[in-house]
Design brief:
By secondary structure, the protein is of the alpha+beta class. It has four helices and seven strands. Strand 6, helix 4 and strand 7 form a beta-alpha-beta unit.
Length: 167
Amino acid sequence: MKNKLFDTDFTSFCQKYDIFAFLEVWNNCCHDDIVSTFPGYVVYTKFRDYNERGGVAVCIKYAFIAGIKKVYLEFSDCIFLLIDKAFTGASQDILIGFVYIHPMNSSIKTDTRIQKGIDFLESCLISISSDIQLEDVTLIVMGDLNARTGDMQDIIVGDDSRYIYHH
């Protein structure tokens, strides 16, 4: 990740967006590196205490921060943002989860200190649903979910940048 912060094509592409996230940030890329690369953005990071790999970073343009609140700070390997419907004019608040789920055969799998895989995401959603009615928000979960696809490919064959939606 740290090398990408010196790639002007990459950083220029990111700065076209109001909110963007990085997953697998790793501890060699500190919060201050991201902040200095993206002036005009608030940067939220979540690094692992128990492993130098992984980590999540979310960047939000300052102009939008008034309508966005970071929630569920206790969750590991993810950052959840609540976007106020009054700020967006939408009919519901928007809850976005930027989530990292460990690969199925990861060495992390044997670490008993952490909850793994889909069980991790499920426990986050159960915790959230005890606070708010999920039908009262638009819930978006995105990130590196390390899809469990069995023998099927977990990528889109023929995928390239021509298929990225630009608005």
